[in-house]
Amino acid sequence: MATDERLRRKERISPASMTATSDAGDVLPLYDKLHNLTLDDKMENALLRSRIDEQSQLIMILKKRADEAIEARKQLEGFNSNLQGCKDDLEDQLREASKKCEMLDARFFELASNHEEMIKIKDDYKKKNAESN
């Protein structure tokens, strides 16, 4: 029974019956239909309007959050690319420092071997000098 009454209410005011026309005579019947709404219809319309308002506010909040998230992501991507560039530069510097260390190690070992040879030559010279005296 309640659905029948709702259908009758909808028949009284339907979107098709509320189309804008240039004829002023069509406005009065629409006004009468709106004026004859029951208290339940008015309360239901008010409730539906408040729900629509709440949903539109929630949609706007979600859109704002999505825009903020997109902006934050863009900033983080920029920051990440800067960090990646710094990482690449530091890796290059590390490679250069490793090459330099390897070269210094090679020179040190060469100097150590030359020093050992000099000690052997000195010892041989001392022996020859001691034998000749």
- C-alpha Rg (nearest Å): 47 Å
Give the tally of β-strands: 0
Q: What do the pLDDT scores average to?
A: 85
Order of helices and strands: HHH
Contiguous low-pLDDT stretches (5 residues minimum) are 13-22
Give helix % range: over 70%
What is the structural class? mainly alpha
Q: Which term fits the overall shape?
A: rod-shaped
Strand count, sense and barrel status of the largest sheet are: none
- Share of β-strand residues: under 5%
Number of helical stretches of at least 4 residues: 3
Oligomeric nature of the chains:
single chain
For the termini, the CA-CA separation is 139 Å
Write the layout of secondary structure elements.
Layout: H1 2-12, H2 27-35, H3 39-132
Give a brief outline of the structure.
Helices cover 86% and strands 0% of the residues.
Model description:
The chain has 133 residues and is mostly helical. The protein is built from 3 helices and no strands. The longest helix is centred in the middle third of the chain and has 94 residues. It is rod-shaped, with a radius of gyration of 47 Å. About 8% of the residues have low confidence.
Q: Which properties best describe this structure?
A:
single chain; 133 residues; mainly alpha; 3 helices; rod-shaped
